[in-house]
Design goal:
The protein is an alpha/beta fold and 306 residues long. Helix content is 42%, strand content 16%. The strands form two sheets. Strands 3-2-1-4-5-6-9-10 form an eight-stranded mixed sheet, sandwiched between helices. Strands 7-8 form a two-stranded parallel ribbon. α3 runs parallel beside α4, α4 (116-138) runs parallel beside α5 and α5 packs across α10 (285-299).
């Protein structure tokens, strides 16, 4: 049975955060949440681009409820400011969609000294989730949806690479794959802790397959080239279609803790969403614990499970 845009239930009364929602897959997630009556909080680096994106949604759905808050996952100060503003405005958070990300970028650092890909894709969302965790706990049947990638299959975890070191040998494809493996390790570790403490939160993940967005503008020379340009050309789907797995993980009433959704067709690169199997290393308790402990130490985040 196909899970499509028409499968999204009425979301009236729901508050949903989507990070990186001014373009690409995040934009379409925000668009469909708004279409189905959720109040969508768009976490965006540029308020100007966020307003342009919100105006597009409102022009299509005049009754859309959208709030735009600045969020730069490259900077812990911005992440904390976003959390403060959200807490001032809202007493509930039904779905936190950790969507924003960067891909195969040149070697660089975040403002907190992390290698940029794992810094934005994992550590930024790790800190953000911790800061919003109190609201998620208070909201009935809330969800956290992390955005992974089929690239996690190529990933390995090396804690020595987490911090930026000038002159260090760097492979942008491996760094991206590591960050996407980290997204799943974080998902499964947090989901286990939620279960152990009997919290009314689902922690899930999704991946968009290979979707046509601006995310891949640095892709030249990466492992995707070796994986085969024919796959990119023939397996690619639209950014809108790529949003479906995340929309399902966020809204489908049959979703369970630790579920992972992605396209079901052609090596999971495109198609309608269904349950996926992450690589064995994503389920490694040793790697989950290592990443969790390092993430707490490096971001100084705290999670209160009581």
């Amino acid at each position: 049975m196909k899970w499509t845009y028409d499968s999204i239930p009425d979301l009236k009364g729901k508050v949903i955060i989507v990070t990186g929602s001014n373009s690409g897959i995040g934009f379409h997630k925000a668009r469909y949440f708004a279409k189905n009556n959720a109040l969508v909080v768009m976490g965006v680096r540029s308020l100007e681009r966020g307003k342009t994106a919100a105006d597009k949604i409102i022009s299509e759905f005049p009754n859309a409820k959208i709030d735009i808050l600045q969020l730069d996952l490259n900077d812990s100060v911005s992440i904390k400011s976003f959390s403060t503003e959200f807490h001032k405005k809202y007493k509930q958070l039904d779905v936190l969609v950790n969507n924003a990300g960067i891909m195969t970028t040149p070697y660089n650092s975040t403002k907190d000294g992390f290698e940029s890909q794992i810094g934005v894709n994992h550590f930024g969302h790790f800190l953000l989730t911790s800061l919003l965790f109190d609201v998620l706990k208070k909201t009935k049947s809330s969800r956290i949806v992390n955005t992974a990638s089929i690239a996690h299959r190529f990933g390995s975890l090396d804690k020595e690479s987490f911090m930026y070191q000038e002159g260090k040998k760097y492979n942008k494809s491996k760094a991206y794959a590591q960050s996407k493996l980290a997204n799943l390790l974080f998902t499964y570790k947090l989901a286990s802790l939620v279960e152990e403490n009997n919290l009314d939160i689902l922690v899930t993940a999704s991946h968009p397959g290979i979707s046509q967005t601006d995310l891949g503008r640095h892709i030249r020379g990466s492992f995707f080239m070796n994986f085969g340009m024919w796959v990119i050309g023939f397996a690619r789907q639209s950014g809108e279609k790529g949003s479906l797995p995340g929309l399902r993980a966020s809204t489908d009433k049959s979703v369970l803790n630790k579920d992972y959704y992605g396209p079901r067709g052609l090596y999971n690169t495109k198609g309608y969403p269904n349950l996926q199997k992450a690589k064995k290393k994503a389920h490694s308790k040793e790697l989950q614990d290592l990443l969790w402990d390092e993430s707490l130490r490096l971001t100084k985040a705290t999670y209160d499970f009581i």
